[in-house]
């Protein structure tokens, strides 16, 4: 397999994994494909690298000595941050959903074959490139609808009464897509794609959990049903949307 120059040019991957043998194997394989690879065995070391170097993708183990990977995931989960691929020996659905809720872009269970790791890193890089340097078009940072204001950069939803509602990365991605397609049906498959990308089928009912939590946050602050379900089809954001 030859390196894909269109994907790997200037791309840097940070591997955060305490298993030295596994980490070095992953680093060697990605390096052979043309990626610049940096390595850390703990969260503290990863933070030092992130402060000193630009990183495009973080492959982050959940179970690390000392501070766990989930706390670093939470810190990095912002629109202009690196793409995050969570890596864990845990395979329960609740663990996958927790990782996604905290802002991971993808989640895989160890052991992962090197070629699958490469494919997932490439997929994250393609989505990063397609989304642009800020993860979204920077001219479309504020959405106003039904008295609410969504600030994409701050990942904050302001209610009509002024209360700030913090959104997870998944909630932000779903709400943004619904707002971009206001008063049109958005399929579950499209919503799954924005929270997981090309491996959307592995999420299961994750999108329904995001929708349920998003609804609770919104409907607690207004007296109308803004996110409507079209059974067997998808969801609709029923409001006029102004992009500031």
Characterise the protein shown here.
The protein starts with a helix and ends with a strand. The chain has helices at residues 5-8, 20-32, 43-52, 69-76, 93-101, 114-131, 169-180, 188-196, 206-219; strands at 12-16, 36-40, 57-61, 83-88, 106-109, 142-145, 148-151, 156-158, 164-166, 186-187, 227-230, 234-237, 241-243. By secondary structure, the chain is an alpha/beta fold. It has two domains: 10-129, 3-Layer(aba) Sandwich (Rossmann fold), CATH 3.40.50.2300; 140-241, Winged helix-like DNA-binding domain superfamily/Winged helix DNA-binding domain (Arc Repressor Mutant, subunit A), CATH 1.10.10. It is elongated, with a radius of gyration of 19 Å. The strands form three sheets. A five-stranded parallel beta sheet has the order 2-1-3-4-5, with helices on both faces. The model is unreliable at 133-139 and 197-204 (pLDDT under 50).
Which structural class matches the secondary elements? alpha/beta
Q: What is the second-level CATH architecture of the largest domain?
A: 3-Layer(aba) Sandwich
Our estimate of the beta-strand percent is 15-25%
**Which fold does the CATH topology of the largest domain refer to?**
Rossmann fold
Distance between the termini: 46 Å
Q: What is the N-to-C order of secondary-structure elements (H for helix, E for strand)?
A: HEHEHEHEHEHEEEEHEHHEEE
Q: List the total number of helices.
A: 9
Unreliable spans are: 133-139, 197-204
Strand order of the largest sheet: 2-1-3-4-5
Question: In percent, how helical is the residue content?
Answer: 25-40%
CATH class identity of the largest domain: Alpha Beta
What is the subunit organization of this protein?
A: single chain
Number of strands: 13
Protein name: DNA-binding response regulator
GO molecular function: phosphorelay response regulator activity; transcription cis-regulatory region binding
InterPro entries: CheY-like_superfamily (IPR011006), OmpR/PhoB-type_DNA-bd (IPR001867), Sig_transdc_resp-reg_C-effctor (IPR016032), Sig_transdc_resp-reg_receiver (IPR001789), WalR-like (IPR039420), WH-like_DNA-bd_sf (IPR036388)
Domain OmpR/PhoB-type: 140-239
């Amino acid at each position: 397999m030859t390196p894909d120059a269109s994907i790997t040019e200037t791309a840097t991957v940070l591997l955060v994994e305490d298993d030295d043998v596994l980490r070095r194997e992953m680093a060697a394989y990605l390096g052979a494909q043309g990626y610049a690879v940096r390595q850390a065995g703990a969260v503290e070391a990863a933070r030092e690298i992130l402060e000193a170097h630009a990183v495009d993708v973080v492959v982050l183990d959940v179970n690390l000595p000392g501070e766990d990977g989930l706390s670093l995931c939470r810190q990095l989960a912002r629109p202009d941050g690196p793409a995050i691929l969570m890596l864990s020996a845990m395979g329960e659905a609740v663990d996958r959903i927790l990782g996604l809720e905290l802002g991971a872009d993808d989640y895989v269970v160890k052991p992962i074959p090197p070629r699958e790791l490469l494919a997932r890193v490439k997929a994250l890089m393609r989505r990063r490139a397609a989304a642009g340097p800020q993860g979204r078009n920077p001219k479309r940072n504020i959405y106003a609808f039904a008295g609410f204001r969504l600030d994409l950069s701050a990942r904050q939803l302001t209610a009509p009464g002024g209360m700030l509602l913090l959104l997870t990365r998944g909630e932000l991605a779903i709400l943004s897509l619904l707002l971009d397609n206001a008063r049109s049906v958005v399929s579950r498959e499209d919503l799954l794609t924005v929270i997981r990308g090309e491996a959307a089928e592995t999420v299961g009912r994750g999108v329904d959990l995001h929708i349920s939590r998003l609804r609770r946050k919104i409907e607690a602050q207004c007296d109308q049903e803004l996110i409507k379900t079209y059974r067997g089809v998808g969801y609709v954001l029923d409001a006029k949307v102004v992009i500031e």
